[in-house]
Amino acid sequence: xxxxxxxxxxxxxxxxxxxxxxxxxxxxxxxxxxxxxxxxxxxxxxxxxxxxxxxxxxxxxxxxxxxxxxxxxxxxxxxxxxxxxxxxxxxxxxxxxxxxxxxxxxxxxxxxxxxxxxxxxxxxxxx
Length: 127
Fold this sequence. Notes:
Layout: E1 2-9, H1 12-16, E2 19-22, E3 37-43, E4 49-58, E5 64-68, H2 71-76, E6 84-94, E7 97-112, E8 115-120, H3 121-125
């Protein structure tokens, strides 16, 4: 089962500085009280694990956001402004216990047979 924690269209800031998401979108990703930094372990479509350093910051509206250092991943995957990124929680039954992991998905809008569709960036790189 998958639960979407967060999804957004990417901006220049997301790809030039860090990916920022509102802390209210975190759901299950709660930082321990008093901690302002953590590492976020995520898995991409191929199952590769990525470790993103994160910190809590305030944006220009004085709201708390989670700033995610993901530029290495973004550059490796040729992620672009306008692509859509989603963070999901995947749960599975493993050895009679529930296991959960965070998954990252990146999609790009492409035009196919006159219609706009969203396709995983990983698959676009295989062309």
